[in-house]
Amino acid sequence: MIVNLLGTGGSEGIPNYLCRCPACQEARRLAFARRKPTSVLVVSEEGTTILVDVGFDVTPYVEEKIDAILLTHWHHDHIAGLFKLRWTSERIELHAPSGSANREIVESPKNLRVVLHETPPSLKIGDVRIRAFPLNHSVQTFGYLIEDGSGTLAVVFDTKGLPPKSLELLKNKSPHVALIDATFSPGVHDENHNNIDEAIALGERFAELTVLAHIAHHNLPFTEAVKYVRDRSEGAVLSYDGMVIVI
């Protein structure tokens, strides 16, 4: 399984428009510190291609035929790219929670085949097995376990911690890699997102490797965050746009 992190930022991206915070200032100097909103491309061992969230126009970055789209939830920073992608010349199946569904996408999907789920589904797409599970967020949100013959990926955003049954599921599965919401800097409390320390601690409970994602400009600057994570955990790394993980 190949996991390509097309975008690893929060809703505003980094740098945020006109912002002069340390993270945004650094990103204007250093291109590798820039982040687009969240989107993850997963290519299985047999070539099945799954897109998880579409936070921006991904079409310049994806040449593969997309077999299915999984939405974690319907906040704009996870669906903005759908408004162009729905004009694709080939039909794409889209699975998403039913809560807070975007009216325009549902009523005018163009070439998207939208399947809304009231409860977390289990799916089989090509050689990929997918199991959704609930997360703790301001709207109905699903995390996803994505498995093929080579390994297991957990997608865990947007969330603050985990519901007990979701944590139990992830402990039982012990995914090779977990992409975990780490929106805020250490010490910041938020009801809907983890900070870096919370994300590291969460990942240590069930994943072999924790990849900290969904990073907002309210977080540490990129170079500082890399050092911070390295000093605190051998099992966690900071994501960046374009990062590729092979499971």
From the coordinates shown, what is the CATH architecture? 4-Layer Sandwich
Form type: globular
| Total domain modules | 1
The total of helices stands at 6
Portion of residues within helices? 10-25%
Largest sheet descriptor: 7 strands, mixed
Strand content: 25-35%
Compressed to H and E, one letter per element, the order equals EHEEEHEHEEEEEHEHEHEE
CATH topology: Metallo-beta-lactamase, Chain A
Mean pLDDT equals 98
Estimated radius of gyration: 17 Å
* Lateral arrangement of strands in the main beta sheet: 6-5-4-3-2-1-14
The CATH superfamily turns out to be: Ribonuclease Z/Hydroxyacylglutathione hydrolase-like
How far apart are the termini? 5 Å
Assign the structural class, choosing from mainly alpha, mainly beta, alpha/beta, alpha+beta, or little secondary structure: alpha/beta
Low-confidence stretches: none
Kindly state the number of beta strands: 14
What would CATH call the class? Alpha Beta
